[in-house]
Specification:
Length: 226
Amino acid sequence: MTKIRRVLLPARGSLVTDMPQTVARSSRLDYPATKVGAAGRVTVSSATSLGDAGLGLARHLVDAVQSPYDNLQTLFGISGGPATVVIAPLSGRNDGSGGAYHYGCDFASGGVLCRDATFALGMPAALDLEIGLYVDELSECFMGAQNKGWGCGFSNGEALSRYCAEQATPMGTLASFATGPAWDQAGRPDWLSRTEKTDQDSVSIGCGIVYMYWMLSRGYAISQIV
């Protein structure tokens, strides 16, 4: 089956992989991986090629995945499905600059979440960024399951997923993924009354996420926005 990847990348990040944007997948996982553990409905694995460093990071992540999962269930007002997290060599540098991806906008089609290894950053920064990448992709599975108009491959859904990731991590963790400045520098075009059908344009995504923070400043709760 041919599927399109939903990709999260920082401003200057890139995927170092021989897999094209659209691929024919013959197996459930894109990387040979070792299962490290599970918490609730989330299984955590590490790509075999990452060795002990990847396994160590995955062990830390097992202990950290449940709380964000529960928070997203509350935020979206639904029960989540099973998810598999795979720490993989997306950037080739193991610093998170390869971002993360999955294939679909719900748990059935997109519940396998591949994220770049981050152990080159050292702890605790490595775990903080892994959690951010995890929450960004996981929130997109909730969007499809909730079915209230958030498109995980569109600018509105990408803005929401980045917001969720920011709330789950210490301030500054996802600074390299910021899109608000791109929207400002582009002259602040209107991407509120219309939605761009891509999750790869910083300008439209930046408009969406800045608007969310503005709505919060006006007294709305994020649960109302979602």
